[in-house]
Design brief:
UDP-N-acetylmuramoyl-L-alanine:D-glutamate ligase, alpha/beta, single chain, 11 helices, 4-stranded mixed β-sheet
Length: 319
């Protein structure tokens, strides 16, 4: 979709851009083990870029702030963003560090393990973002993750909160976050592991997710959404818990499921959908994504969500 055809309020994504190198194998290796894999392929990835592409394919008006290297991977990534209709005016180029790469192994059940070499992503700094500060004023939704400097994330979140903007933080990869940062977040979207890191509560079931969500909310976050894979998502909003049930699908690759969820969720919020409606939409999008290989390549288009109503049967209920 071309930029001038978009009608939604602008979504500003600040994050990483990587090239994913993927090997399919029967099982994930344990320490010291060598596993003979099967299919190998390369795909554009990086949590920021993945979420930007997912949002753009679903009809969002998306601007991406990231940093790439002055190399073939970086040039290829930027061209992909342009092809997806993403505004790339603030895709910065680092002339000293290479573009980020991720090494991914995917097992026969669609589960994965990932190692990332951040490269230029790690040098996206406050000086870069200061030049892009007017974009925060223009944006309706600001979506950030943790594959860039935590200092940069904290700066973006604070500036956005001071301007009264809705900030979605996908706290991945998992790390410890300060209460000061969390108080500036409108919506946080951890998975089980990340929720445990933030709350100290093991999330093995819905009760554990509720306890974790309550602790995270008490740190100052307005809305907590814990993504639970095939069990859907738990939402804590306005002191009410809602369990959004996921569509049952046969997962092939879960690599970018969370990124597609966040991109879709941002689009729905930009369209003024309620939190529950937005999570249902996001669950539908991620259900499609896990049935495909790859990161950005797995992100669905809007018609694939709207034309598969019977297949994508997500629902929610208060608990």
């Amino acid at each position: 979709m071309k930029r001038d055809e978009k009608t939604n309020a602008m979504i500003l994504v600040v994050g990483s851009s990587n090239t994913d190198m993927v090997i399919k194998a029967a099982h994930l290796p344990v320490a010291g083990e060598t596993v003979l894999g099967g299919v190998f392929f390369m795909n554009p990835g990086g949590k920021g870029a993945n979420q930007a592409v997912a949002a753009a394919r679903l009809g969002g008006d998306v601007t991406l702030i990231c940093k790439i290297g002055n190399d073939a991977f970086g040039s290829q990534s930027k061209q992909i963003f342009l092809n997806e209709g993403i505004d790339t005016d603030y895709v910065f180029v680092d002339h000293e560090h290479p573009s980020g790469v991720a090494l991914i192994t995917v097992d026969q059940h669609g589960e994965n393990c990932i190692v990332v070499a951040s490269g230029a992503n790690a040098t996206l700094n406050i000086n870069d973002l200061a030049a892009a500060e007017p974009l925060i004023e223009q944006a309706k939704i600001i979506l950030v993750q943790l594959e860039i400097s935590l200092e940069t994330v904290a700066w973006v979140v604070e500036i956005a909160a001071n301007k009264g903007k809705k900030v979605i933080l996908n706290p991945a990869p998992a790390c410890v976050l300060s209460d000061a940062l969390l108080r500036n977040v409108s919506v946080i979207t951890p998975n089980r592991t990340e929720a445990e890191m933030l709350s100290g509560i093991v999330v093995n079931d819905i009760d554990g997710a509720k306890q974790a969500a309550q602790i995270i909310k008490e740190k100052g976050v307005e809305t907590v959404i814990i993504t639970l894979g095939r069990e859907g998502a738990l939402v804590l909003h306005h002191h009410e818990f809602t369990h959004i049930l996921a569509t049952e699908v046969e997962a092939i690759d879960t690599t970018a499921a969370g990124d597609v969820f966040n991109g879709a969720f941002a689009v729905a919020l930009a369209e003024n959908k309620s939190i529950e409606e937005a999570v249902i939409f996001a669950c539908k999008a991620s259900a499609v994504a896990v049935t495909r290989m790859g990161a950005q390549s797995s992100a669905p288009f809007r018609n694939e969500i709207e034309e598969n109503v019977s297949f994508l049967n997500c629902s929610g209920h208060q608990i």
